[in-house]
Design goal:
Elements (H helix, E strand, L loop, with lengths): L8 E8 L4 E2 L5 E3 L4 H17 L9 E6 L4 E6 H10 L1
Antiparallel strand pairs: 1-2, 1-3, 1-4, 4-5
Length: 87
């Protein structure tokens, strides 16, 4: 009997400015690794909108790690700040 393997990988999307951190304790399972950047953008936009729209987010990053703890993406909030202003 073969055990079906889950084809999704789990990623954790942590946000930090180097002093304060928003930790993703559960992560998100994604079937397609190309979705990692899209979800990182969503995480940053959500933080800016819900946690503090008036805060200075220019030094913040989304630090994404895979299930083995390896960094797979580092996304600066300032890269997507124009998207937040347009929304």
């Amino acid at each position: 009997m073969t055990v079906p393997r889950d084809s999704r990988s789990r990623y954790r999307f942590h946000c930090t400015d180097g002093h304060v951190a928003i930790i993703d304790p559960k992560g998100l399972a994604l079937a397609d690794p190309t979705q990692v950047r899209f979800h990182a953008v969503e995480v940053a936009l959500h933080a800016m909108e819900r946690v503090g729209a008036g805060l200075d987010w220019s030094d913040w990053i989304v630090d994404v790690h895979d299930a083995q703890g390896r960094r797979v993406l580092l996304l600066a909030f300032r890269e997507i700040m124009p998207l937040a202003r347009a929304a």
